[in-house]
Design brief:
heterodimer, A: 335 residues, mainly alpha, MetI-like fold, 18 helices, B: 309 residues, 16 helices, globular, membrane (chain A), transport (chain A), UgpAE/MalFG_permease (chain A), MetI-like_sf (chain A)
Chain lengths: 335, 309
């Protein structure tokens, strides 16, 4: 148990209050001392309710919290087939290894670039699309655009990757168009220079429509009187949008921005894994794909776990700080 | 009271200033431009999909010389026949159905139970129970420890490797919790007075009232399991255990080499250049068929989750 304790604090300690209890509770549900009587009463009255929570709690303990503890193999040597918590302490060895590994910093840079590009393109576009949809007078047309633009969200990543590859293939529509313009074929999928554009546009294709839903829902909650008042004050359409609509959906924007920042490090792992190949590694390889190859493919589990832990901690720090900044500046926060 | 009111998003969005006090010339121009832009969105979204469908019905010669765009050329069903007589395709398709059903059932049972518990506002320790779930949205063990765990538990090469590690989606959990919280408490109190246990109340009173949210959740889970490929790719060692998404993945990764997905050498040369397109169409078909009918459930689920999420 002592080994478990040592790795426990970092994730919990860096979070906000309430975290710590959340992490220790599943192992000892009756651990709260000082309020024994009320706990006993609660258990007597609601034991059936608590019993319904048992299986879900086992799920969270085994498949969510145990892997967090399993990150200890980043500090211990792990042999496939051995204990899942590793065999012997090696300290910061694996961290030093990747810290001095130029390929790690290469994929780290790629991750940042890809994350920033995705954020810049895929975060604002749903807002723009939602605002445009909001101006549509014809319900039928609006519904058509919505139904069609939601569709890619329901397709498997494999399908999306397949569609992208066919679309950009030598005999696909894009190269057909290039032919008509008298241009030579471009083998998009094999050129590192094209990868980021392909990834970001396919991401946009897949997410932009679905991303409008929450904004459209937020738009319906804006009080019509505000528009009325703005008109009386002489505001034209553009100024109404700027002074009424945008502030109205700001909480939604901020919330989604925080969530996007939180998943920044995990950029489209599955899709990149499907779309990239050794030729495009120079731009396409990101932290998550790199650690997948290091760990699962090459069996360097401890090394990959160290990278993974580093990645998760950055993700946690990003979302916690984004949340904190947002709470201080605009007053919206996730917790 | 939270209700599943999709129409609020799809129908009732009032265009600001719909009363049209002043429809300036600039605004009319904007309306035209806006329509054109949105039509553009529709075209760009559908174009690649229509191209795949056209390709799947086209002849080899037309495809290889880059002449298939939005309409099939040299119409034929040769590749469809080849794929549909491929034993491995059907094995993997059946796997997809089995995995989806099992994983969805497990997920629904666990999610419903926990969401119901979390919806009881006066329950002692509720905050902690919510925290246990929500924290996992922001911090996860990561790929490697999960892989090691599933391997250590001996779940590899079984349906449980897919069903158990993804049994509760916290987002779905919060959607259900929000819905249960919106149900009138009086009904449950009445049920308790009539002598129903907590289990009885949940089963006979709460769930029958929650059909809409249950349907939404089943769809959320089913679609995500149907579409998933990486879990199976990671934990299944044999090609006859793979879901059809991995079958397609191998086809894409192997370029035009159909032997990688169970075609014999002789058959592999016979299948057309459009084998990927055909497989994409056959894999997506179930989703495309049900999509128009279930779309509004999804929209309502997402907005309901956002209330609390």
């Amino acid at each position: 148990m002592s080994t478990i304790r040592t790795v426990d604090p970092p994730p919990g300690a860096s979070g906000a209050g309430g975290r710590k209890s959340a992490r220790t509770r599943p192992r000892k549900p009756r651990g709260a001392t000082g309020t024994k009587r009320t706990w006993r009463q609660a258990l007597r009255r609601d034991w059936q309710l608590y019993s319904l929570a048992v299986l879900p709690l086992v799920f969270f303990a085994v498949f969510r919290y145990l892997p967090m503890i399993g990150n200890i193999i980043a500090f211990r040597r792990y042999h496939p087939g051995g204990s899942m918590f590793g065999d012997e302490w090696v300290g910061w060895r694996y961290f030093k290894l990747f810290w001095h590994d130029p390929s790690f910093w290469h994929v780290f840079t790629n991750t940042l670039v890809m994350g920033v590009l995705t954020l810049i393109v895929c975060f604002p576009m749903p807002i723009v699309l939602a605002l445009l949809l909001n101006e549509v007078r014809s319900r039928k047309f609006k519904r058509l655009v919505q139904s069609v633009s939601y569709l890619p969200h329901f397709l498997s990543t494999v399908i999306v990757a397949g569609v992208v590859m066919q679309f950009l293939a030598a005999d696909g529509p894009v190269n057909q168009a290039l032919h008509h313009l008298g241009h030579k074929d471009i083998l998009f999928i094999q050129q590192p220079g094209w990868f980021r554009s392909i990834y970001v546009s396919s991401e946009l294709w897949q997410t932009v429509g679905w991303g409008t839903i929450l904004y459209l829902a937020a738009l319906t909650t804006i009080d019509d009187n505000l528009y009325e008042a703005a008109r009386i004050d002489g505001a034209n359409r553009w100024r109404q949008t700027w002074h009424v609509t945008l502030p109205g959906i700001r909480p939604t924007m901020v919330t989604l921005l925080i969530l996007n920042i939180g998943t920044f490090m995990a950029v489209g792992f599955e899709k990149i894994l499907l779309l990239y190949n050794p030729l495009t590694y120079p731009t396409a390889d990101v932290v998550s794909t790199y650690l997948y190859r290091m760990g699962v493919v090459s069996n360097n589990f401890s090394y990959a776990a160290a990278i993974g832990l580093f990645e998760s901690l950055i993700g946690l720090v990003l979302i916690v700080s984004a949340n904190r900044i947002s709470r201080r500046t605009v007053g919206t926060s996730l917790w | 009271m939270v209700t599943l009111d999709t129409s609020a998003i799809i129908d009732k969005t009032p265009p600001p200033a719909a009363t049209g006090i002043r429809t300036s010339r600039g605004y009319r121009v904007f309306q035209v431009v806006n329509t054109v832009i949105l039509l553009g969105v529709v075209v760009v979204t559908l174009y690649p999909i229509v191209n795949i469908v056209a390709r799947s019905f086209s002849g080899d010669g037309y495809i290889r010389s880059g002449k298939v765009n939005l309409w099939p050329r040299g119409f034929n069903l040769t590749t469809y026949k080849a794929v549909m007589t491929n034993a491995m395709f059907w094995t993997d398709y059946r796997n997809t159905v089995v995995y989806t059903v099992v994983a969805t059932v497990v997920a629904m049972v666990l999610t419903t139970c926990y969401a119901y518990v979390l919806s009881k506002k006066d329950l002692r320790g509720r905050g902690v129970l919510v925290g246990v779930a929500v924290f996992t949205m922001f911090f996860s063990g990561g790929l490697i420890p999960n892989y090691v765990l599933v391997t250590t538990l001996g779940l590899k090469n079984s349906v449980w490797a897919i069903a158990l590690p993804n049994a509760i989606s916290v987002f779905n959990l919060l959607v259900m919790k929000a819905f249960f919280e919106g149900l009138p408490q009086e009904l449950e109190e009445a049920a308790a007075i009539d002598g129903l246990s907590t289990y009885g109340t949940l089963w006979r009173v709460v769930l029958p009232l929650s059909k809409a949210v249950l349907a939404t959740m089943v769809l959320f889970y089913a679609v995500s399991f149907w579409n998933s490929w990486f879990t199976a790719f990671l934990y299944m060692d044999h090609s006859d255990l793979m879901p059809v998404t991995v079958y397609l993945r191998n086809l894409i990764a192997g370029a035009t080499n159909a032997t990688s997905v169970g075609f014999s050498e002789a058959d592999a040369t016979a299948v057309g250049a459009n084998i990927q397109a055909v497989t994409i169409v056959l894999t997506t078909l179930p989703i495309l068929v049900v999509y128009p009918f279930v779309q509004r459930y999804f929209v309502s689920g997402v907005t309901l989750g956002a209330v609390k999420g």
